[in-house]
UniProtKB/TrEMBL annotation:
Lineage: Bacteria, Bacillati, Bacillota, Clostridia, Eubacteriales
InterPro entries: Class_I_gatase-like (IPR029062), PdxT/SNO (IPR002161), PdxT/SNO_CS (IPR021196)
Family, as annotated: Belongs to the glutaminase PdxT/SNO family.
EC number(s) given by UniProt: 4.3.3.6, 3.5.1.2
Protein name (Swiss-Prot/TrEMBL): Pyridoxal 5'-phosphate synthase subunit PdxT
Enzyme active site: C78, H170, E172
GO cellular component, one term: glutaminase complex
Keywords from the named record: Glutamine amidotransferase, Hydrolase, Lyase, Pyridoxal phosphate, Transferase
Gene Ontology biological process terms from the UniProt entry: L-glutamine catabolic process; pyridoxal phosphate biosynthetic process; pyridoxine metabolic process
Catalytic activity: L-glutamine + H2O = L-glutamate + NH4(+); aldehydo-D-ribose 5-phosphate + D-glyceraldehyde 3-phosphate + L-glutamine = pyridoxal 5'-phosphate + L-glutamate + phosphate + 3 H2O + H(+)
Protein backbone atom coordinates (compact mmCIF):
# COMPACT_ATOMS: atom_id res chain seq x y z
CA UNK A 1 0.00 0.00 0.00
CA UNK A 2 1.17 3.54 -0.80
CA UNK A 3 0.47 6.24 1.77
CA UNK A 4 1.45 9.85 1.23
CA UNK A 5 2.89 12.26 3.75
CA UNK A 6 2.44 15.94 2.87
CA UNK A 7 6.08 17.01 2.67
CA UNK A 8 6.00 20.80 2.51
CA UNK A 9 7.06 21.58 6.11
CA UNK A 10 6.94 20.00 9.57
CA UNK A 11 7.35 16.53 11.04
CA UNK A 12 7.51 14.57 7.79
CA UNK A 13 10.32 12.05 8.32
CA UNK A 14 8.89 10.71 11.61
CA UNK A 15 5.63 9.73 9.87
CA UNK A 16 7.55 8.23 6.94
CA UNK A 17 9.67 6.12 9.32
CA UNK A 18 6.57 4.83 11.15
CA UNK A 19 4.86 3.91 7.84
CA UNK A 20 7.99 2.13 6.57
CA UNK A 21 8.34 0.17 9.80
CA UNK A 22 4.78 -1.11 9.18
CA UNK A 23 5.80 -2.31 5.70
CA UNK A 24 4.01 0.51 3.93
CA UNK A 25 5.40 2.43 0.95
CA UNK A 26 5.59 6.05 2.18
CA UNK A 27 5.37 8.68 -0.55
CA UNK A 28 6.50 12.28 -0.04
CA UNK A 29 3.76 14.52 -1.44
CA UNK A 30 5.15 17.81 -2.76
CA UNK A 31 3.27 18.30 -6.04
CA UNK A 32 -0.07 17.38 -7.63
CA UNK A 33 1.28 14.29 -9.45
CA UNK A 34 2.35 12.85 -6.06
CA UNK A 35 -1.36 12.51 -5.17
CA UNK A 36 -1.74 9.78 -7.81
CA UNK A 37 -1.43 6.13 -6.79
CA UNK A 38 -1.60 6.75 -3.03
CA UNK A 39 -4.29 5.23 -0.81
CA UNK A 40 -4.33 7.92 1.90
CA UNK A 41 -2.36 10.92 3.14
CA UNK A 42 -0.99 12.19 6.44
CA UNK A 43 -0.82 15.93 7.11
CA UNK A 44 2.00 16.33 9.65
CA UNK A 45 2.49 18.74 12.51
CA UNK A 46 4.40 21.95 11.82
CA UNK A 47 3.31 25.53 11.21
CA UNK A 48 -0.26 25.44 9.88
CA UNK A 49 -0.04 28.92 8.33
CA UNK A 50 3.17 28.00 6.48
CA UNK A 51 1.84 24.63 5.30
CA UNK A 52 -1.44 26.28 4.24
CA UNK A 53 0.45 28.91 2.24
CA UNK A 54 2.61 26.23 0.58
CA UNK A 55 -0.49 24.15 -0.26
CA UNK A 56 -1.75 27.15 -2.23
CA UNK A 57 1.62 27.95 -3.85
CA UNK A 58 2.10 24.34 -5.03
CA UNK A 59 -1.52 24.21 -6.30
CA UNK A 60 -2.09 21.16 -4.08
CA UNK A 61 -4.90 22.71 -2.00
CA UNK A 62 -7.87 22.23 -4.36
CA UNK A 63 -6.95 18.78 -5.78
CA UNK A 64 -6.30 17.46 -2.25
CA UNK A 65 -9.55 18.95 -0.94
CA UNK A 66 -11.52 17.37 -3.83
CA UNK A 67 -9.97 13.95 -3.15
CA UNK A 68 -10.81 14.17 0.57
CA UNK A 69 -14.41 15.23 -0.18
CA UNK A 70 -14.70 12.15 -2.45
CA UNK A 71 -13.69 9.84 0.45
CA UNK A 72 -9.88 9.79 0.27
CA UNK A 73 -8.48 8.85 3.75
CA UNK A 74 -6.62 11.69 5.47
CA UNK A 75 -5.07 12.05 8.90
CA UNK A 76 -4.00 15.42 10.28
CA UNK A 77 -1.72 15.60 13.33
CA UNK A 78 -1.55 18.91 15.25
CA UNK A 79 -1.11 21.50 12.45
CA UNK A 80 -2.72 18.93 10.16
CA UNK A 81 -5.86 19.09 12.33
CA UNK A 82 -5.93 22.87 11.82
CA UNK A 83 -5.60 22.41 8.04
CA UNK A 84 -8.62 20.07 8.02
CA UNK A 85 -10.92 22.27 10.17
CA UNK A 86 -13.84 24.21 8.74
CA UNK A 87 -13.34 26.83 11.47
CA UNK A 88 -10.35 28.17 13.40
CA UNK A 89 -11.04 30.24 16.52
CA UNK A 90 -10.07 33.93 16.14
CA UNK A 91 -9.07 33.43 12.49
CA UNK A 92 -11.05 34.19 9.34
CA UNK A 93 -8.78 31.95 7.26
CA UNK A 94 -9.22 28.22 6.76
CA UNK A 95 -7.27 25.86 4.55
CA UNK A 96 -8.71 22.55 3.34
CA UNK A 97 -11.91 23.15 5.33
CA UNK A 98 -13.17 19.55 5.03
CA UNK A 99 -13.90 18.50 8.63
CA UNK A 100 -16.90 19.80 10.61
CA UNK A 101 -14.79 21.01 13.53
CA UNK A 102 -13.76 24.31 15.07
CA UNK A 103 -10.23 24.28 16.47
CA UNK A 104 -8.45 26.41 19.01
CA UNK A 105 -4.81 26.99 18.03
CA UNK A 106 -2.05 26.63 20.67
CA UNK A 107 -4.86 25.72 23.07
CA UNK A 108 -2.45 24.46 25.72
CA UNK A 109 -0.09 27.43 25.53
CA UNK A 110 3.38 27.90 24.09
CA UNK A 111 6.26 25.47 23.53
CA UNK A 112 7.16 25.33 27.23
CA UNK A 113 3.61 24.18 28.03
CA UNK A 114 4.07 21.07 25.87
CA UNK A 115 3.37 17.83 27.72
CA UNK A 116 3.11 14.05 27.49
CA UNK A 117 0.48 11.72 28.92
CA UNK A 118 -0.84 8.18 28.40
CA UNK A 119 -4.37 7.03 27.73
CA UNK A 120 -6.22 3.95 26.55
CA UNK A 121 -8.09 4.81 23.33
CA UNK A 122 -10.44 1.88 22.74
CA UNK A 123 -10.88 2.41 18.98
CA UNK A 124 -7.11 2.31 18.48
CA UNK A 125 -5.61 -0.07 21.06
CA UNK A 126 -6.51 -1.82 24.33
CA UNK A 127 -3.14 -0.66 25.77
CA UNK A 128 -2.29 2.84 27.04
CA UNK A 129 -0.93 5.01 24.23
CA UNK A 130 1.67 7.76 24.65
CA UNK A 131 0.18 11.17 23.72
CA UNK A 132 2.66 13.94 23.00
CA UNK A 133 1.29 17.50 22.86
CA UNK A 134 3.45 20.31 21.41
CA UNK A 135 1.79 23.73 21.09
CA UNK A 136 -1.28 21.63 20.45
CA UNK A 137 -4.72 22.69 19.27
CA UNK A 138 -7.93 21.05 20.41
CA UNK A 139 -11.43 20.82 18.98
CA UNK A 140 -13.67 23.39 20.64
CA UNK A 141 -16.87 22.44 18.79
CA UNK A 142 -18.02 19.99 16.13
CA UNK A 143 -21.02 18.68 14.22
CA UNK A 144 -22.88 15.47 15.15
CA UNK A 145 -21.12 13.67 12.27
CA UNK A 146 -17.79 13.97 14.10
CA UNK A 147 -17.02 11.09 16.45
CA UNK A 148 -14.86 11.62 19.52
CA UNK A 149 -11.87 9.27 19.70
CA UNK A 150 -10.12 10.86 22.68
CA UNK A 151 -10.65 13.61 25.23
CA UNK A 152 -8.11 14.99 27.70
CA UNK A 153 -9.43 17.12 30.57
CA UNK A 154 -12.76 17.51 28.78
CA UNK A 155 -11.16 18.70 25.53
CA UNK A 156 -11.54 16.73 22.31
CA UNK A 157 -8.02 15.90 21.08
CA UNK A 158 -8.75 13.12 18.57
CA UNK A 159 -11.76 12.75 16.30
CA UNK A 160 -12.96 11.06 13.17
CA UNK A 161 -15.50 12.05 10.54
CA UNK A 162 -15.87 9.25 7.98
CA UNK A 163 -12.57 9.21 6.01
CA UNK A 164 -11.02 12.05 8.05
CA UNK A 165 -8.94 11.50 11.20
CA UNK A 166 -7.52 14.34 13.29
CA UNK A 167 -5.28 14.28 16.37
CA UNK A 168 -3.99 17.19 18.46
CA UNK A 169 -1.03 15.10 19.55
CA UNK A 170 1.94 13.54 17.74
CA UNK A 171 1.89 9.71 17.57
CA UNK A 172 4.87 9.89 15.20
CA UNK A 173 7.08 11.25 18.00
CA UNK A 174 6.68 8.08 20.09
CA UNK A 175 7.86 4.58 19.24
CA UNK A 176 4.26 3.36 19.38
CA UNK A 177 2.78 2.44 15.96
CA UNK A 178 -0.87 1.88 16.94
CA UNK A 179 -2.26 5.14 15.52
CA UNK A 180 -0.43 4.56 12.23
CA UNK A 181 -1.88 1.02 12.14
CA UNK A 182 -5.33 2.51 12.77
CA UNK A 183 -4.91 4.94 9.86
CA UNK A 184 -3.63 2.16 7.57
CA UNK A 185 -6.78 0.18 8.39
CA UNK A 186 -8.81 3.22 7.25
CA UNK A 187 -6.79 3.28 4.00
CA UNK A 188 -7.27 -0.49 3.50
CA UNK A 189 -11.05 -0.22 3.94
CA UNK A 190 -11.17 2.66 1.46
CA UNK A 191 -9.06 0.71 -1.05
CA UNK A 192 -11.56 -2.18 -0.98
Amino acid sequence: MNVGVLSLQGGVIEHINHLKSLGCNAVEVKKISDLENIHGIILPGGESTVIGKLLKETNLLDPLKEKILRGFPVWGTCAGMILLAKEIENDENTYLSVMDIKVKRNAYGSQIDSFETEKVIEQVSPNPLPLIFIRAPYISSHSNDVKTICEIDGNMVAARQNNILATSFHPELSKNLEFHKYFLSMCNKSKE
